[in-house]
User: Fold this.
Amino acid sequence: MSTHVIHKDAVPTAPIPVSEIEVHTTPKGAMRWVVLVVLGILALIIVAPILLLVMDAFKSNADYSANGPLSLPASVSLEGFKAYMEVVNYPRALLNSIVISALVALFGVILSLFSAYAIGLGRIKGGTAMLTILLLATMVPQEALIYPLFYGAQATHTINTVWSVIIVFTILQAAYGTYLLSSVMSTLPVSVLEAASLDGAGRWQTLWSVVFPLVRGTMSVLMVFFFIWTWNEFYIPLVLLSGQDSQTVPIAIATLQGQNAVNVTAMNAGSLLSLLPTLIFFLIFQRTLTKGVTLGAVK
Assistant:
């Protein structure tokens, strides 16, 4: 026979009604919908200029003049693309942009790795001052650099060649890359580097066997950014690449603007053709960007 002892101060509790539970959960669910709506509006604001660019690129000049830029195309027209191709050597400009952007991304990341390894892990004297100078160099306006860059390209006989732009942007991009990679390397555990030293690894072997795998994710992100940043550069290539055979895609678009008139549909078509390679490049390497945030953890 079992007995149940009930404390005299115990108060029987009744089950919580379902309606009260819904009252507490409903605001949270409503907040999720509010967040989704806000994000949807922001996404629409971001995508709207691209959609407008696509619509105007497939309009004829008469359709654009009659209905304006915000209307849907009355019919799909390739008039803008034909006008753009007649004025601009797009395949040549596309090849120049790809070569310049790819080489700057590759050389810039390699140079950043070597210089950051010396500053971030080599603990050289004045390393902090060097990083400060490199960071300040990325903030200098390009207008302040164009005169020495132009005369330097003339002195080295690289003017109107892709190498003038490749050399300039490799140094400029590597300044930011050095600052970022050295900051990442300075946070690496000392125990890992000491273990490599005890195993007999030299500085070169430590760089490629220990440091490089740890910062590879950051380097891949830098390479993607360097490619896109260099692709969109306009002012310095405009001055250093005045020849039509060495022009990049952004410079080729600027040639469509006349003194008294502008072919709007041709400019929209050229802008769309300029946007597509970077968009395809971003879609291909978007997984690299997401992985680069998490890679580099100590194993």
Q: What stands out?
A: The radius of gyration is 29 Å.
